[in-house]
Amino acid sequence: MSSLVSAPEKVRKGDRRRQRGNRTGFTTGATAAAAATAATLGLVRGEVPEKVACELPNGMQVEFAILGGRVERADDVECAHAVAVKDGGDDPDATHGAHITVEVRRIPGGGGEVVLEGGPGVGIVTKPGLGLEVGAPAINPVPRRNIAANVSAAGAAILQAGDDLAVRISVPGGKDMAKKTLNARLGILGGISILGTTGIVRPFSTAAWRASVVQAIEVAVAQGQSTLVLTTGGRTEKCAMRSFPELDEACFVQFGDFVKAAFTTAIQHGAQHIVLGAMVGKLTKIAQGLSVTHAWREEVDRALIAEAALEVGAPPALVAEIRAAETARFAAEHLAARGLAVAFHRALAERAIRSLRTRYPGPHRLTVLACNFEGEPIVTVEDGGRTPPITATATSLLPPRSAPDTAPGPARDETY
Questions:
Q1: Which of 121, 166, 291, 329 could connect to 105 by a Cys-Cys bridge, CB 3.0–4.6 Å?
Q2: Please, is 111 exposed, middle or buried when counting C-beta atoms within 10 Å of its C-beta (0-12, 13-18, 19+)?
């Protein structure tokens, strides 16, 4: 059950008082879905429950405690309010302890739709490149679908009657919380983002997580595996499993942000072939030579991205926009629209290989698999770029290997 957190002390990067461990928590998206579900049940039942079971994007059923539940009618509009407290587990961030507040309104005769709205404390998207519409609230696609699914289930009777359910998400203090994040640099202004691809927050920055990466590699080697596929998260792991279906599941290791820990361990244990699976943002950071790719460590090198774009034939005006953009995704999306996705990702992959060869030398064979934001392969590149590209069309016929979102490791890949 999601625990209640009152007046949490501020947790800063490098704070020695921070409690280390491996207890998982819940994303802002999962917390918002829980509050939205409770408020919707309030409209259906006339009373908001104190606890609510909510289905996460990864299929888990989790019970959350609910605060501040009430049902009221204003100007002939029925609405219900509920609050769920965001618990970051053993990796608390700026949103740990946030009171995710949801108001659900019944809109007569709307057509039976769930409409999501952003309230105070939820950021507004002001720049392209995040996969969200400019001017829209910063509620990412997976949380949007998950919130709508939970509300649809809880409010089925209302929706079937032809009325809409308007779901307004607010975060008291969210504007101040956002100052401790990269939102402003990413063009998300006025509050935090509602995020999460599985609903679960895993302790990315703890020693326990690094140790789990090392352990996973050791287990694979102990099973006689000579090939290791190191991926940045759940979507890239699924992409890699589709691209290399002949490999045993033990070969696949989600290393999250810990590049150095993963590669040094793989080399120390004699891996003969190392495959890196990554999306554009973390692929760029690896090409930069970063040992840890966590968003707060260092921003994406826009000059490197612009250089790669220019190399593959992007027009000067677009190169200038890419150099000024805050995300690598901006470049990926605009170059894909011009048919340059494979060439661009190949250029980044070659830079990543050169960086990895310099920082982690050895006799091993090295392959980079670049994936898109849907978890489909774009191109694979080996040392010197000798391998022909693997396109999403060519590999989409391969049967997917098992890679459930509940598997150990960070199921999110990147948001930048």
A1: 166
A2: exposed
Token reading at 206: 């703890």
Architecture of domain 25-201: 2-Layer Sandwich (3.30)
Q: How far apart are CA 197 and CA 201, in angstroms?
A: 10
With CA atoms as reference, report the closest residue to 207 among 2, 403, 18: 18
SS3 call for 232: coil
Q: Mean pLDDT per 10-residue run, the chain (416 residues)?
A: 35 38 86 98 97 96 97 90 93 88 95 96 87 92 96 97 97 95 82 91 64 82 91 92 92 90 94 96 94 76 96 97 93 96 97 95 95 94 58 35 34 45
CB atoms within 10 A of CB 356: 21
Q: How far apart are CA 143 and CA 404, in angstroms?
A: 18
Domain ranges of the chain: 25-201, 207-395
231 CB-contact burial (10 Å; exposed 0-12 / middle 13-18 / buried 19+): buried
